[in-house]
Structures are given as C-alpha cells and as structure tokens.
Amino acid sequence: AAVTNADLSGWGGDICDLIGYTQGKVSGTVDEMAEVIRTSGNYLGYDDPAPEIHSFGILDMYGDLDGFYIVQNISGGKSISTIMKSYFNANLSDKFRAEFLLRNRFNGAGTKEEIRSAVYDAYRSNTAISALESSRGLTDIDDLRKACCYAFADYLYEQAKDQIENPYYTVFSSTESTLAPGVTQETN
Fold first, then answer.
1. Of 45, 93, 88, 90, nearest in space to 70 by CA
2. Contact 165, 112 (CB under 8 A)
3. pLDDT (tens digit per residue) in 45-79
4. How would you classify residue 140: left for phi > 0, otherwise alpha for psi between -120 and 50, otherwise beta?
5. Longest Cα separation, the chain
6. Using CA atoms, how far apart are residues 97 and 102, in angstroms rounded to an integer?
C-alpha cells in the first residue's frame, strides 16, 4: 500500500496531470504521441507557469524522483539530514535519479519495452489513480494514457539506459569470415 500511495502522490499522479494537460493537443498512434509528449518541450518536463494548470514539469519530475529516493532511504533507517547531505551534492544527476527509480520501483525492467510495460501496469493497477482520473473527467483516453505512461517510461530509459542495460550481452568485437562459397561465419 505504501508504494501505491507513493505512486499516486508522485509520478503516477503526475502522469494523470499529463493526460489532462495533453488531452486534445496530441494525436497519432500511441508511439507517435509518446514521442511528441516526451521530446517536444511542450508537455513532459514543461513547467506551465499558470498555477491552476496541472502539468508534469521538470520540477514535478525532480520532486517525484527525489521524493522516492528519500522515502526509500528513510525506511532503511537513515536520518533525513544524512540522506539530504549525501544525496543533494555535485554528483546528483538526472541519470542517477532515473536509475534509482528503475532499480528500486521497477526492479527487473531493463529494456525500453519492459520499462514501458512496468510503468503502464503500475499506473493501471492503482485504483486510487483510476479514481483521480475519474474525478478529473478523464474518459475515453486509453491511447493517450498509454502514450503518457510511455513518454515517462522512455524518459527514464533514455536517462538510465547506459547503467541498466546488461553489459553481458553487448558485442565488444565482431569478425566475419567465409568458410566456403556462400557460407559466412560471424563471431562475436
């Protein structure tokens, strides 16, 4: 229940904000919408200056990712001052923030597709988020919901992909040789 509540008051609630913010403004396939939402600079990561408008700006992103880190470490028994001193330093980066959330909230998701699925499944299975969508009148938004979840997942993936991809499966060298006419061998 604690994780479900943290999602609602964190990234999950902000995805709901993003759905409302982008509704009627983006169109296309789920993947096309996710790309526009993530990369255009007008939606995900955009801090709308109007106080009455709910967006999913970069300040929200930092609040969600930093809040998750702090809560995880408090539950581990560390004091808030120790956490703050060790976390908020010159080495803090968007990559670290994303990697921490991926490893500790979506453990096991390492590919872009796995992260998309994990974010979407966690969002859809949260009944409090469903109630939040309903309270905001967000209906008939299946593709947009998926696109917003994917945009957030893709942001996390792009930030942390170098740290989360499995190094055992990367090709470090490749050679090709002809064994016989028409038969080629590739060694990785």
1. 88
2. no
3. 999 999 888 999 999 999 999 999 998 898 878 89
4. left
5. 71
6. 9
Structure-token pair, residue 2: 């604690």
Continuous segment of H or E residues that includes residue 183: strand 183-187
Between CA 19 and CA 43 the distance in angstroms is 10
Six token digits for residue 79: 């004091």
Q: What tokens does 177 get?
A: 């040789």
105's enclosing H/E stretch is helix 94-105
Which residues have CB under 8 Å from 106's CB, separation 6+?
115, 118, 119, 122
**pTM of the entire structure?**
0.84
Displacement of CA 137 from its chain's centroid (Å): 24
Residue 154's pLDDT is 98
Contact between residue 17 and residue 55 where contact means Cβ atoms under 8 Å apart: yes
Judged on CB neighbours under 10 Å (0-12, 13-18, 19+), 130 is middle
d(CA 129, CA 119): 13
What is the separation of C-alpha 111 from the centre of its chain, rounded to a whole number of angstroms?
A: 12
Handedness of CA 132, 137, 143, 147 (dihedral sign): negative
Look at the chain and count its residues. 188
